[in-house]
Amino acid sequence: MAEISKPLPVPTIETRPFWDACKRHELRIQRCGACGYYQFYPRIYCARCFSDGVEWVLASGRATVLSFTIVRRPVSPAYAPDVPYIVALVTLEEGPTMMTNIIGCEPEKVEIGMRVAVTFEDWNEEISIAKFRRA
Amino acid sequence: METLKNKVAIVGAADTEVGVVPNLSATQLYVKAAKLALEDAGITKNQVDGLITCVSFVEPYMYHAEMIAEYMQIFPRYCMTAPSGGGTTLAIMHHAASAIATGMCDTVLITMADSQLSGLSRGKAIEAMAGAGHPQFERPYGPPIPAFYALLARAHEHAYGTTAAQRAAVAVACRKHASMNPAAQMRKPITVDDVLNSRMIADPLHLLDCSLVSDGGAAIVMTSAERAHDFKTKPVYLLGTGEGHSHEHISQARSLTTSAAKEAGERAYAMAGLGPQDVDVAELYDCFTPVVIIELEDLGFCPKGEGGRFVEGGRIELGGELPINTHGGLLSHCHPGHPGSMFSITEAVRQLRGECGPRQVKDAKISLVHGQGGIMSTHCTSILGSERI
Predict the structure, then answer these.
(1) I need a surface site. Which of A35, B26, B103, B161 has the fewest CB within 10 A?
(2) Residues B219-245: pLDDT tens digits?
(3) Which among A69, A97, A101 is the nearest to B150, CB-wise?
(4) By the 8 A CB rule, do B58 and B216 touch?
(5) Which residues span the domain enclosing B374?
């Protein structure tokens, strides 16, 4: 399994709720209870109003492609079986941007503005990675 | 408010041999660059009382500048290591100027080098390639460094209709200038078609849209404008400098098409009391061709979205309206990693002294140097002049 040697994310005390949700195939981000701002990645305070009232909420999982590239030369040998693969930035319906892979789609068919939906790839029992497919 | 304008000068500048330099270690390159810059300035190592380095990827030390001071057996009263390069290099010059202006030290040596090409084991090379990006929220998706910049290029294409041929014009200009610079690593002229026909690395970036991997070092000596006339060289004055910092990770960027080069440039122009129309030669950070197009826009050389059209027709080549990267830039002169922007500074100094021979920009009096680091994350612009203004 080539994927075994891909760099496994190591959850921290701050990011654990995100990774625990991914394990359940849920995309969770933070929302500020004071000003309503959504943020990703997780932070101790709201990055807009700096209040400490950030809460974990379930994201819709719907997003649009902000930009993308087709990677022809893998970043490391562990990614060689995936070439060509799409690295994309997607804007979640709630506002934040995430890096991701667009999967299940011919690379040449991907375009900026395309609507996508979250899906999860289980890397092991602890880590599932949020990826996106055409909606 | 008092500013650094006219207060500090570069009185020594030099590069080591660059490109493939297997006979010198990273540390040796730092010290050789230092020696050459001191010789250029006409001073001994004992006259240096401030030392700044950037950390070496190949031969890292926790206290890198102290290590170089120890190696050279100098005992500065101001000593600092920059943890990274790119835009940081010019920010370091900003720090050095502040240290001189506030009396922390009189004469600062900045030396930066690395042996990215010859000094890296295969494992270290893979680590260098894979080490970019947020460890939890970017790296799992497998972005090699060119992919980060491809995201910017694609967004700029989509927003403004920028083309692959326009990006290629940046690579062609840099190579043309490198062909006139005996020191450059890649000197064979290329065409737009050569760029477009080179291997696709990360769509839409081809191999020749990407900068080099190199060995090499460069150093400068800075002192106060008052003391500068005691040196044998023609001083090059710092007229303005400014920084802008917008993010670390590209997935957190405020914009993919407008960078903090805008703030850096505005701050530098404001300090100098100059504008883009006053610049005779620009040395811009060119790790990938789309970066130059975005910088030209953000630094005010053309309106936002016009960068692709601006680089066409030889405008950025020697003899054009705004020659850029007259040494060949990171795309064709050399790119040893962190020190990249140092070669822009030493080239700007040579241009303002009138030492560039066939690639000299005629009557160059004002040069703008811009560096960026991270993924368009951290920016610093410096405006240098052959005279105080």
Answers:
(1) B103
(2) 999 999 999 999 999 999 999 999 999
(3) A69
(4) no
(5) 145-211+239-385
